[in-house]
Design a protein that fits this description.
Length: 247
């Protein structure tokens, strides 16, 4: 018999009554504690086997109180402990067996990962995250990360850690993968990014070799500005190409 983690979301009227809920009702309950959760996120966790809602004869999902509590547990483990789904699944299975589960202490602050994923500059550029934290941020397993590395999409530093850009790349690669885009499909994007980086390097190279420290510092700001413009141009060109194909 499945043992449901206790506490958190899922203590509303519907839960006390023991009735079944639609996915929309579940979303409303969860958003009290997890304002960023979406229906797509709930469906993704179902696809990953972390929850098993009932189905009506017409195919609609119906969630019981134990499903809501289980969802809240999964979301809490991601938010508070940065655990990948594989580890969360193992914890749930241990709870079902009646075992005590010890949770790891987070290795980094939430602001660090949020700054990496949102690109808001809140985290220092020199910050690094470990492999476990990267897996948790991207919500993938070791096999997926190893495949990304084999295609050169992500690479650790000499200490085996990753910079914040790698966290952003990991999350984006994972999101694209849910649309069926595999790492081999993304090699063309990596190649284009390398060529753009080479072009920026050619522009700022004379500034970086200058004797004046201020000029060398200006090279860094120029490189960042050129990179931003390059990304905007790339996005505009893709949108333009798609518009021509879809009309």
């Amino acid at each position: 018999m499945r043992r449901t983690p206790s506490g958190g979301a899922g203590s509303g009227t519907a839960t006390r009554a023991g009735g079944l809920m639609s996915i929309g009702t579940v979303l409303q309950q969860l958003r009290e504690e997890f304002p960023e959760v979406t229906i797509s996120k709930i469906r993704f966790l179902e696809a990953e086997g972390l929850i098993e809602p009932r189905r009506t004869p017409s195919g609609y999902r119906k969630f019981g109180p134990e499903d809501v509590q289980r969802l809240a547990y999964v979301l809490r483990m991601q938010r508070d402990h940065y655990l990948p789904l594989k580890v969360i699944r193992e914890h749930l299975e241990a709870l079902e067996r009646g075992e005590q589960v010890r949770l790891p202490v987070p290795g980094r602050s939430r602001e660090l990962l949020d700054g990496a994923l949102d690109g808001d500059g809140g985290a220092p550029a020199t910050a690094r995250v470990g492999r476990t934290e990267l897996l948790a941020a991207a919500e993938v397993g070791e096999a997926e990360l190893a495949e990304w590395e084999s295609y050169g999409l992500i690479a650790p530093d000499e200490d085996g850690d990753y910079d914040l850009e790698a966290v952003s790349v990991a999350r984006l690669v994972a999101d694209l993968g849910r649309f069926g885009l595999e790492p081999r499909h993304l090699r063309v994007m990596k190649a284009a990014a390398d060529r753009e980086a080479d072009l920026v390097e050619q522009v700022v190279a004379p500034l970086r070799r200058h004797r004046n420290p201020r000029t060398r510092h200006h090279a860094e700001s120029t490189a960042r500005e050129l990179a931003t413009l390059s990304v905007r141009l790339h996005a505009a060109l893709v949108q333009s190409a798609l518009r021509a194909r879809l009309h």
